[in-house]
Amino acid sequence: MNLTISGHHLEVTPAIREYVQNKLERVRRHFDQVIDIAVILSVDNLTEKEKRQKAEINLRMSGKTVYVESLAQDLYAAIDTLIDKLDRQVMKYKDKVQNHNHDAIKHRAEVFESPASAA
User: Fold this and answer.
1) Who's near 66: CB < 8 A, 6+ residues apart?
2) Residue 114 has what pLDDT?
3) pLDDT score, position 115
4) Confidence class of residue 32 from pLDDT cuts 50, 70 and 90?
5) What is the secondary structure of 12-66 as a DSSP string?
């Protein structure tokens, strides 16, 4: 799995990099077929009073690409909400894949049982 963490208009410190990696462990624990992860952290200065911290992630896994973004006043809060959103989407995809496989096995079992019960 390749992990790329980049910053736009901000320097990615080792503390931020480690924080993102620790948070991504939760996603990897739920779904291990991740191919590539690209994280982009940025700061947008809209006005002097309001600074927007933005975190984006593009996660490629077998069969699907997931894009999630999050905005917050604090970069760590943006990362937290980003990981929560990503985790929900990955779990939804995992359930969909598992249910599809389960339905195929169930259908195959019904097909094999039908001729035996008719005989």
Assistant:
1) 57, 58, 59, 86, 89, 90, 93
2) 59
3) 58
4) confident
5) --HHHHHHHHHHHHHHHHH---EEEEEEEEEEEESSSS-EEEEEEEEEEETTEEE
Q: Is residue 89 within 8 Å of 69, Cβ to Cβ? A: no
Q: Taking the complete model, does pTM exceed 0.85, yes or no?
A: no
State how far Cα 13 lies from the chain centre: 22
**What 3-state DSSP class applies to 102?**
helix
Asked if residue 80 has pLDDT above 80, the reply is yes
CB atoms within 10 A of CB 50: 9
- Please say whether the beta carbons of 20 and 5 come within 8 A: yes
